[in-house]
Amino acid sequence: xxxxxxxxxxxxxxxxxxxxxxxxxxxxxxxxxxxxxxxxxxxxxxxxxxxxxxxxxxxxxxxxxxxxxxxxxxxxxxxxxxxxxxxxxxxxxxxxxxxxxxxxxxxxxxxxxxxxxxxxxxxxxxxxxxxxxxxxxxxxxxxxxxxxxxxxxxxxxxxxxxxxxxxxxxxxxxxxxxxxxxxxxxxxxxxxxxxxxxxxxxxxxxxxxxxxx
Length: 213
Prior knowledge:
Strand content: 15-25%
Shape: globular
Distance between the termini: 38 Å
Number of helices: 4
Number of domains: 1
Order of helices and strands: EEEHEEHEEHEHE
Structural class: alpha/beta
Oligomer: single chain
């Protein structure tokens, strides 16, 4: 109906091994009522069920792109904005590198299953072009670390989902990390799962959402 606020939900998957991950969904329609669980297939089923009637933002709590540097000495240095809020651990350090490695197959599996369940969906990496319309899926990186971390994987997912929900409600987005030259691991997963055939997606950074500490 004309004049109605678009309906959206935000789902964040906090990356861990299959027995140690968590996810949460925040629904704008239900005034930030949350769903939380540690079953990945249940997250995918929930997204597929909701996509026909609403827009969904889906975040993964792991590095989804890494910088491309001109100097080899800088190859593993932090992304711009990464080492702030009193944190001095780049994406290539222990926790970041581990979640990146674990996240790649999880992200690929999730995107493949969503496409199988709702092939008519439209996926967006560029948040500036995202349209809040039913069937549209915006992908982003959730960055929960340092003072912003919760007590569990599900708690981390809720914090990031609520922050993204505020972005969507206001229409004002601010990425926590700014890099122009990157290689996108998210883009490789989108190519692998058939969401796109455009190789430019490998050069496209996604939105990085960081809850305040």
